[in-house]
Automatic annotation (TrEMBL), chain A:
Domain of life: Bacteria
Protein name stated in the entry: Electron transfer flavoprotein subunit alpha/FixB family protein
Alphabetical keyword list: Electron transport, FAD, Flavoprotein, Transport
PANTHER family xrefs: ELECTRON TRANSFER FLAVOPROTEIN ALPHA, ELECTRON TRANSFER FLAVOPROTEIN SUBUNIT ALPHA, MITOCHONDRIAL
Entry annotated with the keyword Ribonucleoprotein: no
Lineage, broadest ranks: Bacteria, Pseudomonadati, Pseudomonadota, Alphaproteobacteria, Sphingomonadales
Pfam annotation, one family: ETF_alpha
Keyword Ribonucleoprotein: no
Family membership noted in the UniProt record: Belongs to the ETF alpha-subunit/FixB family.
Residue stretches making up the Electron transfer flavoprotein alpha/beta-subunit N-terminal domain: 32-223
Automatic annotation (TrEMBL), chain B:
Ranges where the Electron transfer flavoprotein alpha/beta-subunit N-terminal domain occurs: 22-219
Pfam families in alphabetical order: ETF (PF01012)
Subunit structure: FixA and FixB form a heterodimer.
InterPro entries documented for this protein: ET-Flavoprotein_bsu_CS, ETF_a/b_N, ETF_b, ETF_beta_N, Rossmann-like_a/b/a_fold
Gene3D superfamilies xrefs: HUPs (3.40.50.620)
Name of the protein described by the UniProt record: Protein FixA
Keywords linked to the UniProt accession: Electron transport, Transport
The protein's role, per its UniProt record: May play a role in a redox process involved in nitrogen fixation.
PROSITE patterns: ETF_BETA
From TrEMBL, chain C:
Organism whose genome encodes this protein: Novosphingobium album (ex Hu et al. 2023)
Keywords on record: FAD, Flavoprotein, Oxidoreductase
Range of residues in the leader sequence: none
Role summary: Could be required for the formation of a functional nitrogenase Fe protein. Probably accepts electrons from FixA/FixB and reduces a quinone.
Organism lineage: Bacteria, Pseudomonadati, Pseudomonadota, Alphaproteobacteria, Sphingomonadales
SUPFAM superfamilies for the chain: FAD-linked reductases, C-terminal domain, FAD/NAD(P)-binding domain
Pfam families documented for this protein: ETF-QO_FixC_C (PF26311), ETFQO_UQ-bd (PF21162), FAD_oxidored (PF12831)
Protein name as annotated: Protein FixC
Domain FixC-like C-terminal, chain residue ranges per copy: 372-437
């Protein structure tokens, strides 16, 4: 029932929350915050994108923009703070503790909630990554405030409230959601949805140290290991720069080899649409789409895939989508950037050769 | 061991239509399905049932028709179905939803035993928020394990669980203590097909149906629209992308077509060409 | 597993109109009924719109109008004869159809079947979805005693198995109870749903409230093949489709999709669909062989109902009412035998055929038994020559161009005679009349 906007039953009082009547104790909440995502010392680019957007929101509200950085290693936290300033933050809340070495829900929820309760921001933004969504839900529930997940657009309305727009029903509709009477107003935004801001070298701000007061022995969940994707030969579709995928248009399991050959030349990951998994042509870890992997490559080549909505939602984040299909009316041409009406079975080998030749020629020329 | 799987009945996104004038979802005639992500959670629960003889309860909150999805979950082999339904829940956002569900879970614990594991899907395909699972975990004080790609081992005696969790750039191997709330990653397993006996049991089963009062919700202001801090103020159709695919049209042989397509791709994605050249240089030298 | 081996009084294979009618009637009478449907739910394999004839359903669920998901009641019927650019035809619209208990409705099968299925469950039948019956289980004497499914586990036993599996149901064929349907006695229809706001539909078809229109069309739209096109108004959508005999498709190499595209783009149809959003495309088979194609209907432990028994009146485009009626009559037969504690032998079940013979189902099918063959054998004339002639006659007649009416009449008749000999035309007319009577 979540996200359904049906009228509430008439019985039992009015719908007071549809009008802005901010309770007194929330009026002190001020400033726009971004909870920065750091893993293995690296700041996720979505955090900078959020700082860029947060800057605009803060300026519109006439308040400060702050970043929250949490981790165990001082050097990388300082580096992150510098980057945050250069991407627009006025202030950085810095929490350093050995128990924050790896992201864990328990520790990060506690620290972020404590900082929020202490310094009281009006807006708190996180990336809609696995980490951000894991953390945001816990923090919002602890704070008993509103959270709008997976936004595509953020703005400030005339009353000064955060207007968070997000797709719903698999992208069929957009809705604009407000948290009028609770603070902070929380939102998450997916990576690459917002533009990367310009970095202003040498820009600086103030650092506020926050002592997390964590005790490792009290933390229940332990991180035993981290298996980096680069160390495994498993399909790494979500993070691949180039993905080549095939669909039923390939006609047979043998023809799927043509997809693999192109992927090989491009150093790409390969995958397929759901029917291929059902037919057993590929394993389920290579399924791309709504119930498979969501991919965000720089280049996505879809061969013989019609482009049903279940597939579409899994690939829409790609920078460039190339469609190869015999049917000029296939839905994939509606959202692909580049298309060719051709039989994938004959075109793919030629395309593989053309890429190989092109890359060889250019290498010689350069 | 008692496992509860929270599922949601959702409209099949492939069949959704938007009324062109009022911009509302035209639900009429749109078939409903079990949220596909929830099936990964259910299958994982059934695997634990196979291994440890656990009892699997499926729970959903929704309109009375959501009983269909519960019954379907039983055909896969779940043991018990619970429907939480009340008009006071209408319009719930993620906070209000996790409140109602956590109350129902407390009632499940009281009636059928405390669940050691609560499963949910990664997110739903209609709301897409991925926030209800974490909300439940927080409210019930369960250890939260989201985006789990694999359950490595479960030690019921020691009360520990070891999992692989999808994180940026790799898998976190985590060990936690029961009780836990797990949100299962997509494509982590494949749903089984229930036997004819499962199907017959499911067809005969009574769905346990509770309303707000039955799960001990006294404060209705925590439910539905009134219990939701977020307010949907505007719903609108996305502006259709006007730029459809640029079609590469080349007469002649397939080689010519392929060459033209490569040119067009590199024109659209110059960064990719750069990367590939670097890759190629590395590769061929 | 003991309880699973207790035989059911009856198993119904399929949850379309005939299977639902049958399972509902038996369960309501207290029989222990299991219904098995291969779709995810009843109607899931059937996304298109259809016409519901109230009478047949009224005999099963008298109060259906209060609950069933009905789209619009039909107040206007248009019969169109089409050539490539025109249509001429007959319209009948009457406020009499705005009666308290209307006679015909447009429905969306997915919703209607689902509702009907819920009634079946309410009546007390067990319903398994997503389960395909793979074969019939027979005892040594050859009597059908149960079914096997595609799910793991033991076979399920029953005193009688009612096959309501549709025109192309494989269980009966595989078990040798009936032959594979012949391509010249079955039509392939393709349908689409075009969504439009209800206000637009009402303005476009001159309707108010829940009034609806049905258009049936024949002529060159089927490119010389035996078939018809149709268009129905639903509440917020329009069902449009076209169907032809399967063997004709094979002969002409025209694909059903091409045919539908051409039909939708016909200048008489296109404006009716303008600005709509097409969401669903479905193809399905309709038995069109009529009386002569009806297979053996009963045997030891089994009964065939609905489309599986070719119960479709192609001339009046009636199907679901025949299906429901055969389902009801089969149920009555089984209930009466069960009450009398009689065995489900071939001889006892033959009662079903006797009862059918007394119903409108068999009487109507018998009446038109010659028509399917007649149309099919003379398809060139009925679906090509005549529509063109009529269109050109109409145009000659209505075009005001300074030519006197007597000359026009002569030109029209000359055109008719030259295209088709007088004897030929008279012969076709005579054959048509004979087949009709």
């Amino acid at each position: 029932m979540a996200e359904e906007n049906k009228p509430a039953p008439a019985a039992g009082g009015s719908r007071a929350n549809t009008k802005k009547e901010l309770p007194e104790h929330f009026k002190a909440y001020k400033h726009v915050w971004v909870a920065v995502e750091i893993e293995h010392g690296q700041v996720h680019s979505v955090s900078f994108e959020l700082l860029g957007e947060g800057r605009k929101l803060a300026d519109k509200r006439g308040v400060e923009l702050a970043a929250v950085v949490m981790g165990d290693d001082r050097a990388s936290l300082d580096a992150a703070a510098v980057a945050c300033f250069e991407y627009g933050a006025d202030c950085v809340y810095l929490a350093q503790d050995p128990a924050l070495k790896h992201y864990r829900n328990e520790t990060s929820t506690k620290v972020l909630t404590d900082i929020v309760n202490t310094y009281q921001p009006e807006i708190l933004l996180l990336g809609a990554t696995n980490l951000g969504r894991d953390l945001a839900g816990s923090v919002a529930t602890t704070l008993q405030t509103g959270l709008t997940a997976d936004c595509t657009e953020l703005a400030i309305d005339d009353e000064g409230s955060l207007a968070a727009t997000r797709p719903t029903f698999g992208g069929s509709l957009l809705c604009t959601i407000f948290t009028l009477n609770y603070r902070p107003q929380m939102a998450t935004v997916r990576p690459r949805v917002l533009a990367m801001p310009d970095r202003e070298e040498g820009r600086t701000g103030r650092i506020v140290e926050f002592d997390p007061k964590l005790v490792e022995d009290d933390v229940i969940t332990k991180v035993l290991d981290f298996i980096a994707d680069r160390d495994t030969d498993k399909a790494n579709l979500p993070y691949a720069d180039i993905v080549v995928a095939g669909g039923l248009g390939l006609g047979s399991a043998e023809n799927f080899q043509l997809v693999k050959e192109l992927a090989e030349v491009l150093g790409a990951e390969y995958g397929g649409s759901r029917p291929l998994v059902q037919k057993g042509w590929i394993t389920s870890d290579r399924q791309i789409g709504q119930t498979g992997k969501t991919i965000r490559p720089k280049l996505y080549i879809a061969a013989g895939i019609s482009g049903a909505i279940q597939h579409r939602v899994g690939v829409e984040g790609a920078d460039v989508i190339v469609a190869i299909n015999t049917d000029p009316n296939a839905p994939i041409f509606e959202f692909a950037h580049l298309g060719i009406v051709a039989d994938a079975v004959t075109l793919l080998p030629a395309l593989t050769d053309a890429f190989a030749a092109r890359l060889r020629v250019n290498r010689l020329a350069s | 061991m008692h496992i509860v799987v929270c599922i949601k009945q959702v409209p099949d996104s492939a069949q959704i239509r938007v009324h062109p004038v009022t911009n509302t979802i035209m639900r009429q005639g749109v078939p409903t399905i079990i949220n596909p992500y929830d099936l990964f959670a259910l299958e994982e629960a059934l695997r634990l049932k196979d291994r440890f003889g656990a009892t699997v309860t499926v729970l959903t909150m929704g309109p009375p028709t959501a009983a269909e999805s519960l019954r379907k979950a039983l055909t896969f082999g779940a043991d018990r179905a619970v429907l939480l339904t009340d008009r006071y829940f209408a319009g719930s956002d993620t906070l209000a939803t996790s409140y109602a569900l956590s109350m129902a879970l407390l009632k499940v614990a009281e009636e059928f035993g405390k669940p050691e594991i609560i499963f949910t899907g990664k997110q739903t395909i209609d709301g897409d928020t991925a926030q209800v699972g974490p909300g439940i975990a927080k409210r019930l004080d369960y250890n939260q394990l989201t985006y789990i790609a694999r359950i490595v081992e479960t030690d019921t005696d020691a009360g520990t669980i070891k999992v692989e969790r999808r994180a940026e750039g790799g898998l976190q191997v985590l060990e936690s203590k029961l009780p836990v709330l797990i949100t299962m990653l997509e494509a982590s397993n494949e749903m089984r097909r229930g036997s004819i006996e499962n199907a017959l049991i499911a067809a005969r089963a009574e769905v346990v149906t509770w309303n707000a009062a039955a799960v001990g919700i006294e404060d209705l202001t925590k439910c539905g629209l009134r219990g939701s801090p977020t307010i949907v103020k505007k719903v609108f159709a996305p502006t259709a992308r006007t730029d459809k695919a640029e079609i590469v049209e080349v007469d002649g042989k397939v080689d010519a077509k392929a060459a033209a397509l490569v040119e067009a791709i590199f024109a659209k994605a110059p960064a990719v060409e750069q990367d590939l050249l670097e890759h190629a240089a590395h590769h061929y030298v | 597993m003991g309880e699973f081996n207790k035989p059911f009084d009856a198993i119904v294979v399929g949850a379309g109109p005939s299977g639902n009618a049958c399972a509902y009637m038996m369960a309501k009478e207290g029989l222990n009924v299991l219904q098995i449907e291969r779709g995810e739910y009843a109607g899931s394999k059937n996304v298109q719109g259809a016409i519901l004839y109230a009478d047949a359903l009224e005999k099963i669920i008298p109060e259906f109008r209060d609950e069933a998901p009905l789209e619009r009641h039909v107040i206007e019927q248009r019969m169109w004869m089409m050539d490539d650019k025109s249509h001429s035809g007959m319209h009948y619209r009457s406020d009499d159809f705005n009666e308290e208990k209307p006679n015909r409705y447009t429905i969306l099968r997915a919703q209607f079947d689902k509702w009907f299925s819920s009634k079946v469950k309410e009546a007390g039948a067990l319903v398994l979805y997503e389960t395909t019956v793979t074969e019939l289980v027979k005892d040594l004497s050859g009597k059908v005693i149960g079914v096997r499914t595609d799910r793991q586990g033991s076979p399920i036993m029953a005193n009688v198995v009612i096959l309501a599996e549709g025109v192309n149901g494989l269980v009966g064929q595989r078990s040798g109870l009936r032959n594979e349907v012949s391509p010249d006695s079955v039509a392939l229809a393709v349908k689409e749903m075009h969504f439009l706001p209800r206000e637009t539909i009402e303005a476009r078809f001159n309707l108010s409230g829940n009034e609806g229109v049905v258009i049936e069309a024949m002529g060159t739209i089927t490119k010389g093949m035996t078939g018809t096109g149709f268009l129905y108004t639903n509440e917020e959508s329009i069902s449009v489709g076209i169907g032809c005999i399967v063997s004709d498709f094979a002969e002409t190499n025209v694909t059903p999709n091409e045919l539908l595209e051409a039909f939708k783009n016909h200048p008489s149809i296109k404006p009716l669909l303008a600005d709509s959003e097409c969401k669903e495309y479905a193809a399905h088979l309709i038995p069109e062989g009529g009386y002569k194609a009806i297979p053996q209907l009963t045997g030891a432990g089994w009964i065939v109902v609905g489309d599986a028994g070719q119960f479709v009146n192609a001339v009046h485009r009636e199907g679901s009412n025949l299906a429901m009626t055969t389902g009801r009559i089969a149920a009555e037969t089984v209930v009466s035998l069960t009450r009398k504690r009689e065995e489900m032998t071939a001889a006892n079940l033959a009662e079903y055929e006797k009862r059918l013979g007394q119903s409108f189902v068999m009487k109507d099918l018998k009446k038109y038994k010659g028509i399917p063959e007649l149309l099919h054998k003379n398809k060139g004339n009925f679906f090509g020559t005549y529509p063109k002639l009529i269109s050109s006659a109409m145009q000659t007649w209505f075009r005001v161009d300074g030519i006197d009416k007597i000359s026009k009449e002569k030109a029209i008749f000359r055109n008719f005679r030259e295209t088709r000999t007088l004897w030929g035309m008279m012969g076709d007319a005579f054959k048509m009349v004979r087949a009709w009577r």
